[in-house]
Amino acid sequence: MNLVIAHRISMKILALALLLPIVVTAQTGSKPAGSPQTKEQRKVEAQRRRAAEELTAEAGATSTSRLALPFKRAWHYLTDSASAVPPSIDDARIYLPLAGGRVLCLDRETGTLLWTGEPGGIISAPVAVAESSVYIATNKFADDGSEVGGSLRAVDKATGLTVWVKDYARPLSSPLAQGAGRVYAGSADGSFYALEGRNGEVVWKVETQDVVRGCALVVDRAIYFGSDDGALRAVDVERGQLIWKFQTSGKIVARPAVDEHAIYFGSADGYVYSVDILTGKLRWRSRTGAAVEASPVIAGDRVLVASFDNFVYALARVTGDRIWKRRLENRITAAPIVEGDASLVAPLHGDYVAVFLNADGRRVNVYQLDKDFEIVADPIFTRGTLVLPTSRGLVVATAPQTIPKDSQTRAIKK
After folding, report:
1. Is residue 318 located within the same domain as residue 268?
2. Is the same domain home to 323 and 371?
3. How far apart are CA 303 and CA 358, in angstroms?
4. Total-model pTM
5. Could you report how far apart the first and last alpha carbons of the chain are, in Å?
6. Could you tell me whether strands 231-236 and 257-258 are parallel, antiparallel, or unpaired per DSSP bridges?
7. Strands 122-123, 128-129: parallel, antiparallel or unpaired by DSSP?
């Protein structure tokens, strides 16, 4: 009997250990999150973790997605200069912008610092990753704080050394997009530009009526981008000629989503739109409770989109009818991350990410950050690695490499 009891106790301890993150401090001289705590602090932290575990599951929900498996922290990189500009990732490295104007290149597996770049000015967009280089856009300021233009810099991925730099009269104001050897970006001067990837020279530009902050979607023959003037434009890739324009009543800042028939996008007027990809004619629009600044994501027969009203919506692709919605505690500005039959949602300034079933919105997983860590920019999930930019630096967590043999993970309410 004693052996049986001991075995049960050991299994419980093992199960609890699997729920706790692995702490590896990647930054030299940084203080691990698990620093000594008082008895009262440990009690509060334990209560907080129990509450998070209760949020993890809704009874009866099952998923085959890796997002539904328990995440463990692999490493973190602590910094006092967290930026609202999201990180970027490739097969070997993570590129982390900092608020002071630096870019850190970290080893993807270990978090080791590989190089640091100081491109000059404030970084205005996520680092764009090309085959051998990365592109870094910055705003430049005079000593008195006035804007004096912007620049685009190509940096060698392996060394962090500058390959070339191009200055512009006004800064680039949108995330960078790439295609066929070109870089595409909106500008504070109210135009959208196609730039040569080898030197930053202007190939063509399209003028709009306001600042272009919209992230462009590049496909074979067209580019789709939104502007602060409330319009979504379809432009010919080669010459920059306007194909069609669709006008809304609010700013369009997120990258659209597209299928074979339609393009889907949100607007600050609170609507999600579906328009015909060839003609730009309205197919449907669906109302949310506030501005939509997150990119819609296609998941099977539905479109998932987050709104400033703190809700995530699942809409029917064909009609725009609402299938379900779920409310989170904070405003949502990042696009849901879809993997298989589930989606991960990261509330801005929240201390957790939640995973919901695409079919009915039931929750199947929660990954809880440590105390005083808040999400400050869009997360990344690729090949089982979750990259979370937080107020205290970068947190990288991993999911198990293989799905359990029964191909399901079951959520059982504690």
Report:
1. yes
2. no
3. 9
4. 0.84
5. 27
6. unpaired
7. unpaired
**Whether residues 319 and 256 fall in one domain:** yes
- Is 382 inside any structural domain? yes
Neighbours of 191 (CB within 10 A): 19
**Largest interatomic CA distance in the chain:** 80
CA distance 176 to 223: 13
Look at residues 100, 215, 237, 120 and name the one whose alpha carbon lies nearest to residue 167: 120
Q: Summarize pLDDT for 234-260 with one digit per residue, the tens.
A: 999 999 999 999 999 999 999 999 999
Residue that has been written with the tokens 């505690």 in this structure: 329
pLDDT at position 44, please?
63
Instruction: State which residues form the domain around 410.
Output: 22-30+42-80+349-414
| Within-domain flag for 223 | no
Q: Across residues 80-106, what is the average pLDDT?
A: 96
114-125 tens-digit pLDDT:
999 999 899 999
Q: What is the DSSP letter of 66?
A: G
Contacts of 8 (CB under 8 A, 6+ apart): none
Whether 413 has a pLDDT exceeding 70, the answer reads no
Q: Which of 268, 295, 327 is the C-terminal boundary of a domain?
A: 327
Give the count of domains, the chain: 2
